[in-house]
Amino acid sequence: MTRTLLVGVAAAALLLPGGAPALGQERGVTADMDGDGRPDPVSLQQVSDSSMLLRVGLPGEFVDAKVPGNAGGRQPVPVDVNGDGFDEVLVPEAVGANTVTYVVWAYSAEAGLFGVPLRDGAPWRIFEGGGATAVSTYGCGPGRPGRVLDSVNAYLADDGGYRGERVTYQFAYGVAGEVYRMPISGVGRDDPALQADPATCAPLDGR
Fold it and tell me: CA 50, CA 73: separation in Å to the nearest integer?
């Protein structure tokens, strides 16, 4: 992670209302990464076939991180996966024919900009898509406290039912911990176990 301090005109530009991109900031999305109640510009730039630059504009500075992967021109998705008012972003790591693989990134004053790990140290990946014979989606619901995130991944088996799992995660103290894992077997596409709405993970201010 790198930081670029801004002064004078550049610092003022970073604080333009409405999440306008600052001087030198590529247009992307906005997310309140530092929890100060103001939208921060967030962008993702492909710098090679397998490497990207994630940039967040905070008051007085840019915070950059090198991210592996190829987003296929997509920008990050703002979310608040635990409902604490500090937004995260889903960074597209790979774009397949039917499924997008995201990695969850967050910011804290202590750690800076970081990819959220699971308890075993692996990156926290979220999948969306699936096509005609699979389901990959995610959604958020009430937790204790805040929100939890449900990740659903299943495929259409030879018996005509879907098989896979639904995993519930809680993001706290910089780590995503598994709360519950529910096997899915022999259910139809409309079964509640396969349902999740990504819009339920949107930032609390509705962005």
Answer: 13
The C-alpha angle 38, 42, 45, rounded to 5 degrees, equals 170
The CA distance from 57 to 181, in Å, is: 36
Residues contacting 30, CB < 8 A, separation 6+ = 19, 39, 40, 41, 42, 78, 207
Mean pLDDT by 10 residues, the chain (207 residues): 47 38 60 96 96 96 96 96 97 96 96 96 97 96 94 97 98 96 97 98 82
Amino acid letter, residue 201: C
Which pLDDT value is given to residue 145? Answer: 86
Report which of 107, 127, 105 is spatially closest to residue 117, judged by C-alpha positions.
Answer: 105
* Own/partner pairs, 32-38, CB within 8 angstroms, 24+ separation: 32/85, 32/86, 32/87, 32/203, 32/205, 32/207, 33/58, 33/86, 33/87, 33/88, 33/89, 33/106, 33/107, 33/113, 34/58, 34/59, 34/86, 34/107, 34/109, 35/84, 35/85, 35/86, 35/87, 37/85
Euclidean distance between CA atoms 60 and 169, whole angstroms: 33
Structure tokens at 38: 């103001």
- The pLDDT score that the predictor gives to residue 116 is 98
Identity at 14, one-letter amino acid code: L
Start-to-end C-alpha separation, the chain: 26
Give the separation between CA 122 and CA 11, rounded to whole angstroms.
36
This prediction has a pTM of 0.87
